[in-house]
């Protein structure tokens, strides 16, 4: 299961997930990691010291494919499993 690390700015999204709602989050992926982020896949969502399992419920949306560090920013809609 691929980990998805949330930033401090994503505290509301994580609380929504904990409450059972879906949430849109942005993640940075490198290399072939993007292949693991497909609709229907389960990911481990991490925020600070908390984590929960979430299912990707929509096709990932590419936000930025040319970051300075070589990563790509992808938007995911995730719901708690």
Automatic annotation (TrEMBL):
Protein name: Uncharacterized protein
Origin: domain of life: Bacteria
């Amino acid at each position: 299961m691929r980990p998805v690390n949330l930033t401090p700015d994503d505290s509301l999204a994580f609380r929504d997930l904990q409450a059972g709602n879906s949430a849109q989050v942005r993640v940075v992926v490198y290399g072939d990691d993007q292949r693991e982020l497909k609709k229907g896949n389960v990911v481990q969502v991490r925020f600070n010291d908390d984590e929960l399992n979430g299912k990707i419920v929509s096709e990932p949306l590419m936000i930025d494919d040319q970051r300075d560090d070589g990563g790509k920013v992808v938007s995911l809609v995730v719901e708690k499993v």
